[in-house]
Specification:
Number of helices: 1
Distance between the termini: 34 Å
Shape: flat
Oligomer: single chain
């Protein structure tokens, strides 16, 4: 705009200069500064000589607002405007506006929202009274409130009535204290006073079978007396001398010190005898485990072993005439093979054998004569297709020679120069170093050309992602911003005629809130709020009305129940407008002491007494002291053992008395012997122990027996030497002897041919063991490629599938992008589109669901619609929130859409969804439609004339209404 104004002014100046030169006869020179008055501006001539009245560029001012002060209801405003050409300024007044009064309240007259000016008087409170009668502890009062505001007050207070006391005296008994119960006839107040201690039982005499009986109430009390016991014997339990009661059982005889009678034999146990520790009775019993057993010690060989069989050995018992003969294990002599002689039977590939005869018997042994194989003698030489042939055995041996390969090219396979064998297929072209052909447009990719790295063949393909894209640079505002939303701006592509419209970010005007009015919602502690309406739209703004908090007013104080025996408690009142409370001292509320009695009975050494405390404070007094009872002795007899003496322990049943009396000497050990026989490596011994305690000792050692050896021959294997293992028949002793050499492997070969990706190889294994090895590797064959070209469709990319004729190898190459749909409109009412290539149809309406656009299709789709990628469309959808339809009940929507006069309604949709197949009856205006399904779309023609829709379903469902605006 400024460039246009400058151009116009330049032209005007040039014309004025021409006129001036033609009229006054001299050349004018105009000042650059502007001259001006209230209506115009111009340049004056400053030429030499006589003053010149000629002017240049005279024109009327072009004013724009420079600053503005709005008028209020108490002061005028002002508007300053400046000329955009010469800068000349003019100022004009803005007239005072009228007051904007808020309604009068109970405490304030009508008040201007702009300047706080008032008119008339406050309304005053519209008072209502509520009378609260006094109680025993609460004063009566009259509460006053206002029907128009939250005003409250109190008046006419009447003092509390106080309690109307009644007393009931409960006398003390032997076990219960006496007390006076106090109640009020008007309320539930209760208290107690004048407590009298329990009287306690008296009189009567206790025995060891009956308690004492109270002379006052006749109840038993106290404890039974202890029995007077006489000691128990071997045959009698202890007995009370007063009542004849018995306790426990007779002690029984105590036979402790059994002594052997030394009458055991090799095969029979002996006996042992003991005398009771408390009387003269004796007891004789078997001395178990004392049978001596045979003692076979000196075994002598019977000299009868052979090469393959052990001999025997015999011993006589040291205490009787019994003898014992057993195998003399490990005495078999074994064969003695020494002089092996060759059997002269080796071949080209196999070792021969050799044989020896035992030095003690006629047994023979034949073994491999290792290293005697003769080997092949060359006859026919090896080639790349056959092995060498032995002149002796005429068998093939060794390896074939390698091929002399000529390398493959792009179009020709490799081959052997000797036998003509093919090594691999032609390698094919490998195109690289693609260079753009610079033929891309804004929306279409260009092409690029590459050359084979092995030959001069070239390849041209699409240059992916080379489309230049539109260049939208100079965006111009469409002047459509509002208070809450940015406007838009539009630009034209620098390379084509395509246009782009986008949000003009930051152009939102924002709300203009000016006249705030109180919302009359202040509380005791919080300020209320005040609200203003935007000067440009209907949006309102509410903010804190600072300083409007009302403050607390406390009433109806009640005791907190925290008084003590000697100190007053507190009472709390509540604010009449809110839940805030206030706590203060509750005069004359101290409770006095609530005495509690704790009786401590006397014991053996200490007297008894009664402790008096208060349940509410730290009161503590001692009363009713009694004398100590003395000890009630209990006797516990500990018998003597082998090492320790006996004694009697004296304790008291009522206290911790502990004394030792009647001490006796220790009994000494009652010894018992256990004979441990000797082993191969350990000596024998006799262990001595005591039958009454854990005492032990040893005697009579005997020498170890030595090993009774046995041999096991382990034959040699391919890789392990043979050996003879020696063990003992009596223990876990082991040793080895007579090692023999390993046999070596007996090899067999398995040839595995090469595949496309795996080399060929010969696997070697042994017939006697799990030995394996590999030999003679050959190269992999490589793939024999075949290609299948699949053309692209609207939605699927084209591709070339590559496979091998010899194996299951597959790959893909040369991907061609999907062609995309070519769409045409086939129904203007529903905006239904059809692809000219694949014939899929869909309606061009989208809803935002689960983070993306979902087409609402009318045909060629089942369930979730996936019939194609949506193209840009100049319409949009206003969906209502989903609403529930109950089976068997009519759903009625009174207003289908609230029409905006600024928009032209083009049509609409009803979308019905349910979890299972449902039948719907839909009434639209005067028309009835019957449809069914789990996902149903119904069109609404002449949508702006429809005011209500009724839907009935035989299943639960949901409905969404859509408005299509063009």
């Amino acid at each position: 705009m400024k460039k246009r104004i400058s151009l116009v002014l330049s032209v005007l100046c040039l014309l004025a200069l021409v006129v001036a030169l033609a009229s006054c006869g001299h050349e004018h020179a105009f000042k650059p500064e502007w001259e001006s008055n209230e209506t115009d501006h111009w340049h004056v001539c400053e030429g030499e000589g006589e003053a010149c009245a000629e002017v240049s560029g005279k024109a009327a001012h072009t004013f724009e607002e420079k600053s503005k002060t709005d008028a209020t209801c108490t002061a005028k405003g002002s508007l300053v405007e400046a000329c955009v050409v010469c800068g000349y300024e003019k100022t004009s007044e803005l007239e005072i506006v009228a007051h904007d009064y808020a309604d009068a309240t109970c405490t304030a007259p009508k008040t201007c929202k702009l300047c706080s000016a008032t008119e008339g008087e406050a309304l005053g409170h519209d008072e209502k009274e509520e009378v609260v009668a006094p109680t025993c502890t609460e004063a009566g009062i009259t509460n006053v409130t206002c029907s128009r505001c939250d005003y409250t007050a109190t008046k006419d207070e009447v003092a509390a009535l106080g309690h109307d006391y009644k007393e009931e005296v409960v006398a003390p008994t032997c076990t219960e204290v006496g007390i006076t119960n106090v109640t009020c006839s008007r309320c539930d107040y209760t208290a107690t006073k004048d407590e009298v201690a329990a009287l306690g039982h008296k009189g009567g005499t206790a025995t060891c079978t009956e308690k004492a009986k109270c002379e006052t109430c006749g109840e038993e009390y106290g404890d039974l007396l202890e029995h007077t016991w006489t000691a128990a014997t071997c045959d009698e339990a202890r007995t009370c001398s007063a009542c004849g009661a018995t306790d426990g059982e007779a002690l029984g005889h105590d036979f402790v010190n059994y002594v052997s009678n030394n009458d055991a034999t090799c095969t029979e146990d002996g006996t042992k005898t003991a005398k009771c520790e408390r009387c003269d009775v004796t007891d004789t019993k078997a001395d178990e485990g004392t049978a001596l057993g045979h003692d076979f010690v000196n075994y002598a060989s019977d000299e009868n072993a052979t090469c393959t069989e052990d001999g025997t050995k015999t011993a006589k018992c040291e205490r009787c005439d019994v003898t014992d003969t057993k195998a003399d294990e490990g005495t078999a002599l074994g064969h003695n093979f020494v002089n092996y002689v060759s059997d002269e039977n080796a071949t080209c590939t196999e070792d021969g054998t050799k044989t020896a005869k035992c030095e003690r018997c006629d047994a023979t042994d034949t073994v491999a004569d290792e290293g005697t194989a003769l080997g092949h003698t060359e006859g026919t030489a090896a080639t790349c297709t056959s092995k060498a042939v032995c002149s002796v055995c005429e068998e093939e041996y060794g390896e074939t020679l390698p091929h002399s390969w000529v390398a493959a090219t792009c179009t020709e396979p490799g081959s052997c120069s000797v036998c003509g064998a093919e090594s691999e297929s032609a390698v094919g072209h490998t195109f690289a170093d693609y260079v753009s052909n610079n033929d891309a447009t804004c929306v279409e990719n260009g092409t690029e050309t590459g050359k084979c790295i092995r030959c001069d063949e070239t390849d041209t393909r699409e240059d992916d992602e080379s489309a230049l894209g539109h260049n939208f640079a100079n965006y111009v505002s469409n002047n459509d911003a509002t208070c809450v939303a940015d406007g838009t701006k539009t630009a034209k592509c620098e390379r084509c005629d395509e246009t782009d419209t986008k949000a003009d970010e930051g152009s939102v005007l924002g709300h203009n809130f000016v006249s705030y009015v109180s919302d009359e919602n202040a509380t005791c502690t919080e300020d209320g709020t005040k609200t203003a309406k935007c000067e440009r739209c209907d949006v309102t703004d509410t903010k804190a009305d600072e300083g409007s908090a009302l403050g607390h007013k406390y009433d109806n104080y009640a005791s907190n129940g925290d008084a003590t025996c000697l100190e007053n408690g507190t009472e709390t009142g509540k604010c009449i407008r809110c839940d805030e409370t206030d706590t203060r001292e509750d005069d004359e509320s101290a409770l006095g002491h609530d005495e509690q009695l704790d009786v401590t009975a006397p014991d053996c050494l200490n007297g008894g007494y009664t402790t008096v405390t208060c349940s509410r404070c730290d009161l503590y007094e001692i009363r009713d002291e009694k004398e100590a009872l003395g000890h009630d002795e209990q006797l516990d007899v500990t018998a003597p053992d082998c090492l320790n003496g006996g004694y009697t322990t004296v304790t008291c049943s009522r206290c911790d008395l502990h004394e030792i009396r009647d001490e006796k000497e220790a009994l000494g050990h009652d010894e018992k012997e256990e004979v441990v026989a000797p082993t191969c490596t350990e000596a024998g011994i006799t262990n001595v122990s005591c039958s009454r305690c854990d005492y032990t000792a040893t005697k009579n050692p005997t020498e170890a027996l030595g090993h009774d050896e046995k041999e096991e021959v382990v034959a040699p294997t391919c890789t392990e030497a043979g050996i003879t293992n020696v063990t003992c028949s009596r223990c876990d002793y082991t040793a080895t002897k007579n090692p023999t050499e390993a046999l070596g492997h007996d090899e067999k070969e398995e040839v595995i041919a090469p595949t496309c990706t795996e080399a060929g190889i010969t696997n070697v294994s042994c017939s006697r063991c799990d030995y394996t090895a590999t030999r003679n590797p050959t190269e992999a064959l490589g793939h024999d490629y075949k290609e299948e070209v699949i053309a692209p469709t609207c939605t699927e990319a084209g591709i070339t599938n590559v496979s091998c004729s010899r194996c299951d190898y597959t790959a893909t190459k040369d991907e061609v992008a999907a062609l995309g749909h070519t769409l045409v409109v086939v129904n203007d009412v529903t905006d239904t589109l059809r692809c000219t290539a694949c014939s899929n149809e869909y309606i061009n309406v989208t809803t935002v669901a689960e983070g993306g656009s979902k087409p609402l299709c009318l045909s060629n789709c089942e369930g979730e619609c996936t019939c194609g990628v949506m193209v840009e469309w100049n319409g949009y959808v206003k969906p209502s929130a989903p609403e529930a339809i109950v089976a068997g009940e009519a759903f009625v929507k009174d207003t289908v859409v609230e029409k905006d006069e600024a928009l032209e309604i083009g049509g609409g949709l009803i979308v019905l969804t349910s979890d299972s197949e449902a039948n719907y009856t839909i009434v639209i205006g005067e028309d009835t439609i019957n449809v069914s399904g789990t996902y149903v779309v119904v069109e609404l023609d002449a949508y702006d004339s429809v005011t209500s829709v009724s839907i009935t379903s035989d299943a639960e469902a949901s409905v969404v209404f859509y408005e299509i605006v063009k």
